[in-house]
Design a protein that fits this description.
Length: 314
């Protein structure tokens, strides 16, 4: 227990640089800005308030993972924010080091070019540390709360409506395969990316994020198919569950914001989405596939949990 508490506070400490920077910007400070941002000040303020709020939620979640009172919370109240947080932050494990190197070598600026050089490395390093921290603290929490479920090797007899699970899983797997192929194409072939309309400021970091998105999509597909085709599996449940958890969260998180930007552009709200409708379609596929994987995974997990609670022989 003491080790979990120590790890939790280390993760919270990793969140503080980003949170303090956001707090400074919300209160009107220009720290970290070399020039005035090209983003509308109202949009900038709203974004800073929203992301600071998300950071506070993440701190509460990490504390719940590492303290006794978190074990008494309803499962959904910790699983949902943990899945969202993992999805939002996992890509920064890939992007963070690349941004640090890119800024250090002056290969490309971060954002719209209005930030001081140190802002990108601080923010992305903090995100990467948070991603690792949330995954580690959640793993410790899950092992403490559901040890029998995570060690189980078979598929629960009550693992939800199985006639629905398999078709849903295959639909998600096909979508994830398409997403992986397109995002990998964007990452390795600039000309192909340009044919989709992705022509603005796509440096090494953006291309690496595309390759990472393809990897997360394949990870989600592999974990999902392992979950629904388990039978008497040799691997414990935590293996496919981890693949599906991280992969689906990152796939969903990488798609929802571009889709919202595209909806705002179509509705005439003054937003601008990269690449237009074709790119938004790929990101919409990510959102749908990520949610499908999460839903199927939750049903399988609930069924396995119910079976582990049955008396022996039933």
């Amino acid at each position: 227990m003491r080790q979990r508490v120590v790890v939790g506070y280390l993760v919270v400490a990793a969140m503080l640089p980003y949170l303090l920077l956001k707090a400074a910007w919300i209160t009107g400070s220009t720290i970290g800005f070399a020039t005035e941002s090209s983003v509308d000040p109202r949009v900038l303020l709203g974004g800073n308030i929203a992301t600071a709020g998300m950071e506070l939620v993440a701190i509460v979640v990490v504390l719940a993972f590492t303290h006794d009172w978190g074990m008494r919370l309803p499962a959904w109240s910790v699983l949902l924010p943990a899945w969202v947080g993992t999805g939002l932050l996992a890509p920064f494990v890939v992007a963070g080091p690349l941004v640090v190197v890119s800024v250090a070598t002056e290969a490309s600026p971060v954002g719209d070019g209005s930030f001081e050089p140190w802002v990108g490395p601080v923010v992305y390093s903090s995100f990467g540390a948070q991603a690792v921290g949330i995954i580690v603290t959640f793993a410790l929490y899950a092992w403490a709360r559901w040890p029998r479920v995570l060690r189980s090797r078979g598929r629960g007899r009550s693992a939800g409506p199985r006639p629905v699970l398999a078709p849903a899983a295959w639909v998600a797997a096909v979508l994830l395969g398409v997403v992986a192929a397109v995002r990998l194409l964007w990452g390795v072939d600039p000309a192909a990316a340009a044919s989709f309309g992705l022509t603005d400021a796509r440096g090494a970091t953006e291309r690496a994020v595309d390759v990472g998105a393809a990897a997360f999509a394949l990870m989600a597909a592999a974990g999902l198919l392992m979950l629904v085709r388990r039978g008497r599996a040799r691997t414990p449940l935590w293996v496919p569950l981890t693949l599906a958890w991280v992969g689906s969260g990152a796939t969903w998180a990488g798609g929802w914001w571009p889709v919202l930007l595209w909806i705002g552009e179509v509705a005439g709200a003054g937003t601008s989405s990269p690449g237009g409708g074709l790119v938004a379609g790929v990101h919409l596929g990510q959102v749908i596939a990520g949610l499908l994987v999460a839903t199927v995974g939750a049903l399988v997990l609930a069924g396995q949990d119910a079976e582990t609670r049955l008396p022996a022989g039933q």
